Amino acid sequence: MVRVRLMTDDDVPAVSAIRVAGWRAAYAGLVPRSYLDAMDAAEDTAARRRSLAAGGGRVRNLVAVEAAAAGGGGGSGGDGGSVVGWAAFGPYRGQPGTGADGELYALYVRPDRIGTGAGRALTAEVVRHAAEAGRRRLLLWVLADNHRARRFYGRAGFTADGLEMTEVYDGVPLRELRYARAL
Question: In 3D, which of 72, 81, 130, 73 has the Cα closest to residue 101?
């Protein structure tokens, strides 16, 4: 059983490990290997802790936690469970914090826990929180070639809205698509 709650400082090392492992699993063959190899969970932990401490309430972080017996090895959230997923969301970048749109900035599940419902549970909670905050739409960006993620978001009610951008990773331009879901 997966439970979703707000992330705490105790969760940060597990979240950073999930983020790095998630990038390496999801983007293998899409993002340059050199970029993925350079990712470091300890550096990510330090940066994430600084970001969490700076806070300001703009970005909300949620974690998916499994009972200790079911998860194993994912890092304890301090509540007897194993952190198996993480999502970050807030106002859409480029709009004031009070804008009508929210954005799902990140959603990662421990690679060995993909398909267990953790991603669906996190997405449902992000949608709920965004709606409660008065957002009318939830937006996200996904690599065009990340077909698995695009199918996942499609099943969660998101559709491509026609906007695209290009991000450069170690000199390689990669196309991203914007997806939207009405709340």
Answer: 130
Owner of token pair 């009318």:
136
Domain count, the chain: 1
What CATH number corresponds to the domain at position 98? 3.40.630.30
CA 60 to CA 58: how far, in whole Å? Answer: 7
- For residue 155, CA distances in Å to 108, 114, 150, 165 come to 16, 15, 9, 23
Mean pLDDT by 10 residues, the chain (183 residues): 95 98 96 97 94 81 83 52 96 80 97 96 98 96 97 98 97 98 97
Which phi and psi (to 5°) does residue 165 adopt?
A: -150, 165
Measured in whole angstroms, the distance separating CA 50 from the mean position of its chain's CA atoms is: 18
pLDDT of 164 reads 97
| Amino acid 72: pLDDT | 45
Buried b (16+ CB within 10 A) or exposed e, 109-128: bbeebbebbbbbbbbebbbe
Domain, as residue range, for 54: 2-182
CA-CA distances (angstroms) from residue 24 to 16, 29, 64, 85, 142? 12, 9, 20, 15, 15
DSSP state of 117: S
